[in-house]
Amino acid sequence: MKGITWGGPAVAAPTTSAKHALETASAYLLHRHDLDEAILLKTLSAMSTSGSDYADLYFQSSHGEVWELREGIVRSATSSIDQGVGARTIYGDETRFAYSQALSVAALEQLAAATRGGMTAGRSPGAAKPSRFQGRHFPPIYAAGDPHHSAEASTKVALLERLERMARLADPRITQVTARLSGGYDIVLVARCDGCLAADIRPLVRLALEVTAEFGGAKEIGTSGAGGRFDYAYFTGELLASLAARAVDMALASLEARPAPAGTMDVVLGPGVPGVLLHEAVGHGLEGDFNRKGSSAFSGCVGQQVAARGVTVVDDGSMPHRRGSLRIDDEGNETRSTVLIEDGVLKGYMQDTLNARLMGVPVTGNARRASYAALPMPRMTNTYMASGSLDPREVIASVKKGLYVTDLNGGQVDITSGQFSMEASLAFLIEDGRITAPVKGATLIGNGPEVLRRISMIGNDAQIDAGIGVCGKAGQSVPVGLGQPTLKIDGMTVGGAS
Q1: With the C-alpha atoms ordered 345, 346, 348, 349, is the resulting torsion angle positive or negative?
Q2: pLDDT digits (tens, 9 = 90+) for 285-341
Q3: In the chain, what are the domain boundaries?
Q4: Do 233 and 254 contact (CB within 8 A), yes or no?
Q5: Which of 139, 137, 142, 203 minimizes the C-alpha distance to 14?
Q6: Are 1 and 386 in contact (CB under 8 A)?
Q7: What topology is assigned to 18-256 in CATH?
């Protein structure tokens, strides 16, 4: 498979000990609360006494902060701390779940009682009753330091002030600037009825910039951002300059933009961020729960040609430092690179324990949850389309009259039918094989599976976004990565103003 680049500076490979996560999580989430492995074993045994097929405990401690600078003033600086444990048992396709903010023996006893149910008639006990744990250690894919301690408060404010100055100095038409810096630090530990004990320490930082440009009575907004599983030292002066330039360029291009044309036309999606279309219109339809229930447009299509030749789609939670990456998923399984579509053929779906067991397939390390207070479900991590072989200039040159899209906002997607509509936040006309005037108000309309089949050219420049993505599903939000190479989609429906 061809390589993929991403929209951020180069960083050193992580060097944290593979055992560090489990040792730290055990000390922080168990020992300081007078809990130990023997208590966890007793709790899981109690949860597994009534014919359950599976049981697990998910411990979590979270620390987050957000700094916002608007019009040169720090308007807010917030910090949050949370901790707790979620307990789950699975009986066939039924899940029983409870959680507690207390970490104590009494709380675990109450959770075990709440998730333990009577055995269904005719069922035999299926879940194991572990007698000991086998600690699982996975190679590090990001450092384990707490971002909050990587910079003083004054340094965080100075970073935001520097970014604002860069944006304002870029062009006199920039009249408003808002910059937000956020950091998170999660310690998680998973204990399962099969004796698995695994942990992860997850740093996460994000920097977002929004600028407003005004000229001749018109007002337009430009945005940019970056982040990943780093500390605040990641935001170098060079990266700040690139974020300022990107946001300013977007706002100024929008000031000059003409109304987008409407109709059926060839559309070229640029590399990186436009992968949001793949994420929304295709990625969700490849999650295991939708396909087990038959509610996805891709249900029952494994082994079938669902996309044009050359289209390969991958979900990879093991990419170093990426925003959507995890050393383990939220069921304690090691994340990995999963090929979902290969050369146009559907190879499989993203799976968690529940859906994989009911579908008779392996788990893929895609179980994710917003917190200990939420149930895990199959979710994307870093999802992208792999590179093709064509020079991106060749792709653009093949279009006589069409649209070149560099940024997409979210939109509406129907998982069952595959229908979607997505707004382009920045797009340009393609005329006689050249990118010309910027346009605004363009909406891409189509069907996810059909769009995959209409891809006629694939560039050799696949990129992952710069690290700001958030994915929502069933009321839960999790950080994700997305990306793609330059793509040409033939005969796409575009909604516009003319």
Answers
A1: positive
A2: 999 999 999 999 999 999 999 999 999 999 999 999 999 999 999 999 999 999 999
A3: 18-256, 259-495
A4: no
A5: 142
A6: yes
A7: PmbA/TldD fold (3.30.2290)
